[in-house]
Amino acid sequence: MATLIKEPRKPTIPITELERSAFCRTEDKSLKSKTLEEEFSAGVRWQKLPIEYLKIKPDVLSQRIHERKKQLGTRLLMLGHHYQRDEVIQFADLRGDSFKLSQYAAEQREAEYIVFCGVHFMAETADILTAPEQKVILPNLTAGCSMADMAGIDDVLDCWDDLQDVLGNDGGIIPVTYMNSTASIKALCGRNNGIVCTSSNAQATFEWALTQGQRILFLPDQHLGRNTGVILGIGLDEMLVWNPFKPLGGHTREALKKAKLILWQGHCSVHTRFKTQQIEKARAEFSDVKVVVHPECTKEVVDMADMNGSTEYIIKVITESAPGSVWAVGTEISLVNRLAQENPDKTVFCLDSMVCPCSTMYRIHPAYLLWVLDGLAEGVVVNRISVDEQTREEAKIALERMLSVV
Length: 406
Ligand code: SF4
Fold this sequence. Notes:
The protein is α/β, with parallel strands linked by helices. It has three domains: 33-144 and 360-388, NadA-like (Rossmann fold, 3-Layer(aba) Sandwich); 148-268, Rossmann fold (3-Layer(aba) Sandwich), CATH 3.40.50.10800; 271-350, 3-Layer(aba) Sandwich (Rossmann fold), CATH 3.40.50.10800. 42% of the residues lie in helices and 14% in strands. Strands 6-5-7-9-8 form a five-stranded parallel beta sheet, with helices on both faces. Strands 2-1-3-4 form a four-stranded parallel beta sheet, with helices on both faces. Strands 11-10-12-13 form a four-stranded parallel beta sheet, sandwiched between helices. Helix 5 (86-89) links the parallel strand 1 and strand 2. The mean pLDDT is 93. Bound molecules: iron/sulfur cluster. Iron/sulfur cluster binds at residues 16, 83, 119, 145-147, 180, 268-270, 332, 358, 360-361. Iron/sulfur cluster (SF4) is lined by residues 16, 83, 119, 145-147, 180, 268-270, 332, 358, 360-361.
C-alpha cells in the first residue's frame, strides 16, 4: 500500500510582527488616531470599506458614532476589549478582557446587535454564547489575532490524530485551548472532553483537565501553558513544545508518552516583546517599582516580575494600589497608557520603551465602527460573524465547561 506523505507546511510570519513597524514608535506615546486614509498610508492591508469613510477626521467620526449609538439605543450593545484604542473604547457599553467579555456575551439577551470591538476569535465566542437571533458584528474583518492564527485547524487536527495514535491507549490526553483560538479548535476541545481557558482561569482549568486525563495538550500559547504548568508543579522536563512543522511535533513516541504537558508552538507577538533586561532597567531607575506582567510573557520575564496575571488582574492591582506607587507593566500599550491616565496619583509605564500596540486590535479604527453603525441604522448588517451550527454546539460545550469550572 502506498504511504501517504504529508507535505511539510511552511511557518508563517504573524501579522502582528509584519505590521508592527507600521505603528511602533518611540515618540507620541498617545497613539492618537488619524484619518483612516493616513493610517492606510503606513502600508497595512485592512478590510476595504466605502471610500467616503477614509477621509473623515477622528473628531467628526466620534460625533457621528455618538449620534448613531443614540439612534440605535438598546437594540445595540457595544463590547470593548481593554486593548482597543481610546477613540474606540470610549463607546464600549461594557469593557473587559476576553474572559469578562465572554461572560457579558453569555448574559446579554436584550440587544439585537452586538458590535464587538476586539478581534475575530472574541466575536466568534460572542456568537457562540449569545442567542441565535442576536447578531454579532466585528467592525473590521481583518482584525484577527496572530497567536490564534498560529494554530490552524488542519495542523491541530493532524496533531490530535497523532496524539491519539501515540497516547490513546496510554492514559489519554485532554485538549485545553486558550480563548485566543478559532471556534473550530474550541469545537475540537468540546467533542474530546476538553475545555477552554483564559489567562484568568488557566490554573483552575488545568487542574480540572488533570482530573480527566493524564496529560494536557495546551494551545496555542506555549508561554501561558508553561507558566501555568510551573504553578501546578509540572517540571519543565515534563513539558514538550509541539512544532506543527515537524513529524510528531518534533518528538519521539517515547518522549510524548513521558510528557505531562504538550504545548503548542504559538506565542503572542505583543507579550513576547518584554525582556528581563527591561525589568532590570526599570528597577535601576525606580528603586520602589513593582513589575506586573501578563502570563503570555516568557517564563523568564514572569519569573523575574513581582507579579503576573490576566489583564483584569493587572488593572485591579494597579487601580487598588497606594497613591505614589510606581508600576512597570508588561502588557499591551493602549491599556498601559489608559491605566497611566486613570491613575494620575501613581507612576505607571510600559516596560518596553518602544510604543507597539497590538496591530490586530489596532485594526478597529473608528471609521470602521461608524461604517457598521451606519449600516445598522439603515437595517443593513455589515460584517456579521456567524459560526456554523455544529461548530457552535461543540465549542459551546468546551466554553460552558470553563464557565462552570471557574
Ligand atoms: S495581544 Fe497578542 S494574543 Fe492578544 S489579540 Fe494581540 S496578538 Fe492576539
